[in-house]
Amino acid sequence: MGEQKGRVAGLLPIGVFLVLFLGVGLVTRDFYSMPAIVAFLIALTVAFLQNREYSFQEKLHIIAEGVGDDNIITMCLIYLAAGAFSGAVTAAGGVDSTVNLGLTLLPSGIVVAGLMIIGCFISVSMGTSMGTIGALAPIAVGISEKTGFSMAICIGAVVSGAMFGDNLSMISDTTIAAVRTQGCEMRDKFKENFLLVLPAAILAVIGYICLTRGSSFQLEGTYAYHIWQVVPYLLVLVGALAGVNVFVVLLVGTVASLLAGVGTGSLALGECFQVMGNGITSMYDITVISMIVACIVALVKRNGGITCILHLIHSRIHGKKGAQLGIAFLSLLVDMATANNTIAIVMAGPIAREISEDYEIDPKRTASILDIFTSAAQGLIPYGAQILLAAGQTGLSPIAILPYVFYPILMLVSVLLIMLIRRD
Question: What pLDDT, on the 0 to 100 scale, is given for residue 424?
Fold first, then answer.
């Protein structure tokens, strides 16, 4: 019976990580003062010290099996390939061209809603909410100053657009983690995910239009763009939706970005390998963290920790609907504790997969729930990197921005309603 219920002690490494990460953050009032990798390494040390039934060599074998899992290896390789594409397309001027193209095409009367729409496209294309906020925040500040609209409304629209792509992009680290931990295809997850969040996105855009209706202004200056610099994003998006292998898609996108950059003069031929290297390097942290978390999860599982969580969840939920709500609640809590939705997915993913297998939930739905609820939480916690960056770019407090981050709020509400009313 004890084996069926698992062992609470097996969860000690996860508890140590949360206490360290949250404790240091609360004491210093900076949730990024404790590097996640350091906290995870300490937690891994604790996991090694547990359970004397296994020798040190046997524990090394256990974690090697955990890291060597097909999904973990594939996830790490995709991270690096996505980093190469991101570095190449950014250096080639893809971000600036996409922003300027959006500002040129959108009517000035819906400029604030337009910030969200542009943010949606950039974040889906780039796969990074932080990069989207960094690119659009200065434009949001200028629009606020010229129109008289609240700075909080303008930057709230930017954050909403950024979180849209963070949750949906084919090359977002959150999407990669959600798909690989659940063993499903990106295209299938995208379709499931998109239908769930589309109502929230539409309502958010309508909300920004209603708040700023009746206003219009003309953007000053020239917003130059090269359509060829936008093409790599479109190739990646279309290729991923068409079901082309993700490595092929990212390779084609990277080559197209380098050709566009060299062809338009924004990138020197000799810089091509350097910008790819910079992009790959930017993914080192999440790649190493994913491997360390896989080690911890392997030991926690062998020590009965995962079984303990599953027993606790099984005792409180019934049926597919309850299981999905359980995964959603688990995702929210882990993201609120870690303040990083990718790490939250990597940590909660193995548990969610066990639940989905027990209740016969489609892997693409589980991946969508993981990604949606961690992204929604990430866009709403005042100590999350996205809100802190938006606050730093505008001089506002995080609390002042949160009421205008419509999309994550509506995403939570709409997806929960769909989950409750949809038949199993």
Answer: 59
Q: What is the DSSP code string of 305-371?
A: HHHHHHHHHHTT--HHHHHHHHHHHHHHHHHHHHS-HHHHHHHHHHHHHHHHHHTT--HHHHHHHHH
User: By residue range, what is the domain housing residue 37?
Assistant: 2-421
* Cβ neighbours of residue 59 closer than 8 Å, sequence gap 6 or more: 48, 299
Nearest to 410 by CA among 191, 56, 51, 163: 163
SS3 state at 211: helix
The answer to whether residues 240 and 186 touch, using CB atoms and an 8 Å cutoff, is yes
- pLDDT given for residue 344 in this prediction: 86
Greater model confidence, 6 or 251? 251
Q: CA 366 to CA 382: how far, in whole Å?
A: 26
Q: Compute the residue count for the chain.
A: 424
Q: What is the C-alpha to C-alpha distance for residues 412 and 199, in angstroms, rounded to an integer?
A: 11
| Whole-structure pTM value | 0.78
The structure tokens listed for 370 are: 């993981």
> Exposed e or buried b for every residue in 338-365, given b needs 16+ CB within 10 A?
bbbbbbbbbbbbbbbbbbbeebebebbb
Cβ(87)–Cβ(216) below 8 Å: no
Residue 56 exposed, middle or buried by CB count within 10 Å (0-12, 13-18, 19+): exposed
DSSP state of 218: -
In this structure, the number of other CB atoms found within 10 A of the CB of residue 207 comes to 22
Quote the tokens at residue 150: 């609240």
What's the structural domain count of the chain? 1
**371 vs 111: CA distance, rounded Å:** 29
Place of tokens 């547990």: 50
Residue 31 to residue 385: CA distance in whole angstroms: 9
Look-up of token digits 């290896």 = 73
